[in-house]
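note to self — DONT lose this again. spent like an hour looking for the file last time. sequence + predicted structure for the chain T wanted, 321 res
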Amino acid sequence: MTVASFLLVSFSSAVWQSILGVIFASFGAGLGELSFLSLSVFFNRSVLEGWGSGTGGAGVAGALLYSGLIQAGLSPRVTVLVMLVVPFSMLISYWCLLVPPPSLPQWSRKEVPHAALGSEEEQGLMEESEEDKEESEEEEERSPAVDRRSESLTCREKKQVIKGLLKFMFPLGLVYFAEYFINQGLLELLFFPNFFLSHADQYRWYQTTYQFGVFFSRSSLRCVKIRRLWILTFLQWVNAAFLLLAVSFLFLPSFWLVLVIIFYEGLLGGAAYVNTFHFISKETESRHREFAMAAASVGDSLGIALAAFAAFFVHRYFCSL
């Protein structure tokens, strides 16, 4: 899906072809997130820290590479074609670098006792910290020896799991709505005409700065854990309201000040993401965890989709003034 999206965008001769490429990219990213979050339950819980940091780092690397190559004089088409190395690197990483738990060869779905999954076989990616070991021991004491996967869940059980996830999904979805409303509807309108960077360059560096914020906060789980996710939701909506006023009344004096605000936006979004999935993994019953991790990923995706819809009309309104 990712290769198809890059090729479609690179060689598109019409707007609809570029849009189709974006759809392919979004579909592939969503499917990958759902799959990898589900698979994370078969490893030590600290793998979520690596997942959060890695996805944040990927955003920084992608934004920096694109901005840097464009700034160096490459055309957007050539730059996107250069990026084709990424999906092939992902394939190599998955099939050659990732070591699946021995109890689950080729991610098979045979019955595996919970006790076996809690053993050394599960620790294929990262060493456990003392805190993680204590959490694992507590979980083993209070959890029956059941399969960690969700293939045996009934529809009623899945509905109950989703109901319990709403306290995580709503804050995450609202954070991402505000975040992508800013990114897709407002940032392009925050243009400083007398600055040494062009309009397009300013927008690219806005996006790059945002990715840095996401990276730092997604890498912070080992140091800071935030259970009250609604605080992050509130702060991100304040951020969106402030930037909407800034676009309306043009009172922000400096490009550099906008960069600081966007970095802060990225910090809030990244913190909401990584803490949401950390506490879902920590607080969900073992046999529900795989399904819960996959289902919760709908929260941020729905928030992004609704934000894109809302941003379309807001952006169009300001451009018509």
